[in-house]
Amino acid sequence: MKPKEILVFGASGQLGRHLLRKLARNNFKVTAVTRNIHQKGYILKSQANAGWIDIVEIEKFDYEKLNNIFENKNICINLVGILNEKHRNSFDNIHYLFPKTLAELSKKNNLDQFIHVSALGIEDAIDSKYASSKIKGENAIKDILERYIILKPSLIYSVDDKFTTMLMSMMKILPIFPIYYEGKTVFYPIHVSDMCEIIENIIIKNLKKISIECIGPEKITFKEILKKLLSSLEVKRLLIPTPLLIAKGFASIFETTMKKPLLTKDQLTLLKYDNSPSGNYKTNLDLHLNSSLKIFHEEVSKYSYMWKDGGEFSKPKVNKS
User: Fold this and answer.
1) Does the pTM exceed 0.85?
2) Would you say 192 and 165 are in contact if contact means Cβ atoms under 8 Å apart?
């Protein structure tokens, strides 16, 4: 039986790299699309055995080239997303126009499934450009084709993320740590391997025309996340509630002085809203898309040693007796 051909956009990110490995191990043939094959080619090639992964470079938006790579494909998966805008990489371009084009090409080439990763808890955040662009993208996809699956995950974490790793890097050097909105924002963190399992089961079960809210097993506030990370690092830091006016000032400075800002004004706006299920859609738990779900502090403890003074030698000793 011929293996299914899957097209993956955003393959070099945290979720993309883990997903490539899982798909290739399960005999799916993957075409990974990247904007810079010289920077990302080695990373992508190392995710699967030869013959199971092809890498295609599309440096700029090229409709004709995009259309060509859709030929003879069964499934398209879009993982592309940004947290802050830069030049042509605006929220509207990346979260609305780009997935709209992919959906149109999926319909034109009669693909079996178009799987799009959006975000959780964005319906009420109408004052956030990030959230608004995500919603526009979701609505455009639903208007274009019926074979869509929209995934709306909470915070996705792992050793390869840019959230827990960034926080632990800051905790390593800062004696105090700012928290916003008293740290009460709610998250349902989901491990990257659990997200990959969701996508794999969606393909196997051939689900269509559905939006799914993807959550981990725990409801955790931002302040609790920080405390769990501090506990894993075995350090103590003062968590200081920061007035919104000061936080906005910091965000403005970060935006103008840093290539990858630690915090933006739009991210600050998003933190007003809980990153939790809306109740408008089924969750991965409702659909039984996971065999089990990983616990946040247990997984973080497996890689937090990299931010401890002892490094590798700070790992707990295993009793072999």
Assistant:
1) yes
2) no
